[in-house]
Amino acid sequence: QSVLTQPPSASGTPGQRVTISCSGSSSNIGSNSVYWYQHLPGTAPKLLIYRNNQRPSGVPDRISGSKSGTSASLAISGLRSEDEADYYCAVWDDSLSGSWVFGGGTKVTVL
Amino acid sequence: QVQLQQSGPGLVKPSETLSLTCTVSGGSINSYYWAWIRQPPGRGLEWIGHIYDSGITYYNSSLKSRVTISVDTSKKQFSLRLRSVTAADTAVYYCAAKVVTVGYGFDPWGQGSLVTVSS
């Protein structure tokens, strides 16, 4: 059971907008920056969003992140076939001695 | 541009020790901290722990009693040792770098190493 809760799946047709939620608590999302990673099978995870809503260079602006309170979300607009992947939220959790925690992951399917 | 290259055996016997090494190239080892993250088959990502170039470590509490992460700054390498492994430790293991400054994510990652625990 992950500390961060994500829906197991999401889907959309090409061109649509898909949103993935990530729910946490005051000790993690409520206190620290949220990160999002894209993971394609057989490859290393790729950083998509840092500091809640910042995109590293090379990540298209149709990818966006937001945070409010103890929840965060990732939005993919203009859905493309290459967006089909697993997406994970991650955040530092201040409880106990501190730890990085990941959401359970959301599989995005392009129909 | 920092790059990470992982190495280590892909098969470990139950009760033995899993050992992986990650070699850093193209960047300064003291601008980052260095992490190990794994993904068991069919499951999500799990942070194992991380280490600063000073040697300070943070570990996942569920693995803390069995894990050691170390760093050799002269070789620009950091390593993972996981003792007393069982089939539940079968996973793809990734090394990853994170800029020390708060607000940056794990980037880049190593290529991943599938480690199977089996006799």
Structure report:
The complex is a heterodimer of chains A (111) and B (119). Chain A has 111 residues and is mainly β. Chain A is built from no helices and nine strands. In chain A, strands 1, 3, 4, 7, 8 and 9 form a six-stranded mixed sheet that branches. In chain A, a hairpin with a 2-residue loop joins strand 5 and strand 6. In chain B, strand 7 (67-72) and strand 8 (77-82) form a beta hairpin. Helices cover 0% and strands 53% of the residues of chain B. Chain B is built from no helices and eleven strands. In chain B, strands 2, 4, 5, 6, 9, 10 and 11 form a seven-stranded mixed sheet that branches. In chain B, strands 1-3-8-7 form a four-stranded antiparallel sheet, with no helix packed on it. Chain B is globular and about 40 Å long. The chains are: A mainly beta (111), B mainly beta (119). Chain A binds chain B through residues 2, 33, 35, 37, 39, 43-47, 49-51, 56, 88, 90, 96-105, and chain B through 35, 44-47, 50, 58, 60-61, 94, 102-112.
Uncertain residue segments of chain A: none
First-last Cα distance of chain B: 40 Å
Distinct helical segment count of chain B: 0
Largest interface: A-B, 26 and 21 residues
Radius of gyration of chain B: 14 Å
Shape of chain A: globular
Distance between the termini of chain A: 28 Å
Q: For the report, how would you describe the main beta sheet of chain B?
A: 7 strands, mixed
In terms of DSSP E residues, the strand content of chain A is over 45%
Please write the string of helix (H) and strand (E) elements of chain A. EEEEEEEEE
**What are the secondary-structure elements of chain B, in order, as H or E?**
EEEEEEEEEEE
**Which descriptor suits the 3D outline of chain B?**
globular
